[in-house]
Amino acid sequence: MRTYRTLGEIRADIDRNQLTLVDLVKSYLQNIEDTSHLNIFLEVFEDEALAKAKDIESKLKSGTSGRLAGMVIALKDNICYAGHKVSAASNILEGFESLYSATVTKRLLAEDAIIIGRVNCDEFAMGASNENSAKGLVKNPVNPERVPGGSSGGSAAAVAANCCLVALGSDTGGSIRQPAAFCGVVGLKPTYGRVSRHGLIAFASSFDQIGPISQSVEDSALVLEVMAGHDSFDTTSSKLRVDKYSEYSDFKPLKIGYIEECLTNSAIDDEVKKTTEQLIERLKTKGHAVEPVHIEELKYLVPTYYVITTAEASSNLSRYDGIHYGYRSDASEDIDSTYRLSRSAGFGPEVKRRIMLGTFVLSAGYYDAYYAKAQKVRRVIKNRTEQLFEEYDLLLSPTTPTPAFPIGSNTNDPIKMYLEDIFTVHANLVGTPAISLPLSTHPESALPIGVQFMAKKFDEKLLLDFSHNLMQSAALKK
Amino acid sequence: MKVDNKLIDKLARLSKLEFDDESKESIKKDLSRMLDFVDQLNELDTEGVEPLIHVNEETNKYREDEVTEKLEQKEALKNAPEHDGFYFKVPKVVENPDDK
């Protein structure tokens, strides 16, 4: 079977009777089996997906199908689907079965998407390499000696390995965009508040957003359009109108600022820098105004992010107590040992590190010096960024300083791993939408290189229009 | 910022976590590195800046407090580590003073 890169291609072939939805699902199931050594899927909903395919096939024939009919989707293992297991790749949620569906899951299903399974990630979405999963690490389909990125490593790998057309991820500090860049696919983090997080296992509530990972910009746009919009179950979800992301406007020249500190950063790989510089030239030739801009606070972004996200995580993760659901230690004797022993055995090392740091920054005597300080820096960064968006339509930077790194190379140094997010945390700190586009490959290693664009809050329409145009012209160039 | 056993024990107690001697050494080392890393923030002058608490401007969306979704008892107990069909079962919470 041919490799489909967009829902449009799939629908066209179904309409021409050259493809059946059941055969399409079967071919994804085959790919899942063939790539099982990469450890992408934690569970495959095989029978269900096939049954659904049959149903939707007949809906397609009778013209009563939803907008996502023909789209096969994988869910990150932190997004709830009623009657299905969800574990956040953690032992503390071993065996847990969700009683309800996330709002995003409901909205996708209502438009006839087929959910083919749940995919691996870093435990509680904490990580940049998918090596923190209690279910084992994921290997990058492009090069199995490399990490796929994280925390939505399984989601990006599933799309890159053609195990599904689209996967949902969650992005707290780059967890959609960085793995998308490492695996050579498109990853979109929507504006904070654009998509409901009801049914997403919480990590850091003032940062978390759900978003799509796909082969094409158009599929990400369509999936966002279906998922976005107010939900009474998430008070942070915005009531602002959802634009028609899937209808593209024609090319229009934009004013784009590239963040110079990202290109002069000492961690940046030469090829990543070269790719970004070439892109800047290409954008200028196409008629965009591209100028250097400055975020002097760049080196403070990751520390700010870690203070606030660990604080929020230590609070969010206090619900895992071994009482109502999840793992309970057999050695528990009384209520306190139930908490301590269940949590100590159930959480992995990175999760415990972050709970400890978060507890520290919130504790009496340190709160002002750390937590309140970081919140102040967050405002400084937000104000600075909003100033830039008064002048520029988009901000450009590489998605990551380097292409996918070798498995095991960062595991002994948490700080080195944290700095993987240096260019991506910005969008989460200020709440803006950002996309990673697979625009190049490294000439020696053949690893994908991603470029990131950030837009003003709730300006996904402009971001997606621009990205679509850019990817189309990149495809023509190839 | 000095990270010693006393601080680790206090944070572990507050976090409801525990560490054996070996993992205590490694969490001590990691936490100390993490704190040095976030201490960089002190280089920035934030005098007079209000802490940012809400990312978006839209806050406080009020709604009527109405029951819209219900969970049956059986469902609520479904994921419990231990239950008797009616209640969640937990280890003893309150000691009987006569037992002491």
How is this fold's topology laid out?
The complex is a heterodimer of chains A (478) and B (100).
Chain A (H helix, E strand, L loop, with lengths): L6 H9 L5 H14 L6 E4 L1 H17 L9 E5 L26 H8 L3 E6 L33 H8 L5 E6 L5 H7 L2 E4 L19 E6 L2 H11 L27 E5 H4 L6 H16 L3 E5 L4 H19 L18 H12 L2 H14 L4 H25 L2 E5 L15 H5 L6 H6 L3 E8 L6 E8 L4 H18 L1
Parallel strand pairs in A: 2-3, 2-4, 7-8, 7-9
Antiparallel strand pairs in A: 1-3, 4-6, 5-6, 5-10, 9-11, 10-11
Helix pairs in contact in A: 2-3, 5-6, 10-12, 10-13
Chain B lengths: L4 H11 L5 H18 L34 H5 L23
Assembly type: heterodimer
Helicity of chain A, as a percent range: 40-55%
Q: Taking Cα atoms only, what radius of gyration of chain A do you get, to the nearest Å?
A: 21 Å
Number of separate helices of chain A:
16
Quickly count the helices of chain B: 3
Overall pLDDT level of chain B: 91
| Helix percentage of chain B | 25-40%
CATH topology assignment of the domain at 5-42 in chain B = Histone, subunit A
| Percentage of β-strand residues of chain A | 5-15%
Question: What is the 3D form of chain A?
Answer: globular
Task: Describe what you observe in this structure.
The complex is a heterodimer of chains A (478) and B (100). Chain A has an eleven-stranded mixed sheet, sandwiched between helices. Chain A is built from 16 helices and eleven strands. Chain A has one domain (1-478): Alpha-Beta Complex (Amidase signature (AS) enzymes), CATH 3.90.1300.10. The model of chain A has no long low-confidence stretch (mean pLDDT 96). The longest helix of chain A has 25 residues, at 367-391. Chain A has helices at residues 7-15, 21-34, 46-62, 103-110, 153-160, 177-183, 217-227, 260-263, 270-285, 298-316, 335-346, 349-362, 367-391, 414-418, 425-430, 460-477; strands at 41-44, 72-76, 114-119, 166-171, 186-189, 209-214, 255-259, 289-293, 394-398, 434-441, 448-455. Chain A is globular and about 65 Å long. In chain A, helix 10 crosses helix 13 (367-391). With 478 residues, chain A is of the alpha/beta class. Chain B is mainly α and 100 residues long. Chain B has a domain at 5-42: Orthogonal Bundle (Histone, subunit A). Chain B is 34% helix and 0% strand. The longest helix of chain B has 18 residues, at 21-38. The chains are: A alpha/beta (478), B mainly alpha (100). At the A-B interface, helix 10, helix 11, helix 12, helix 13 and helix 14 of A face helix 1 and helix 2 of B.
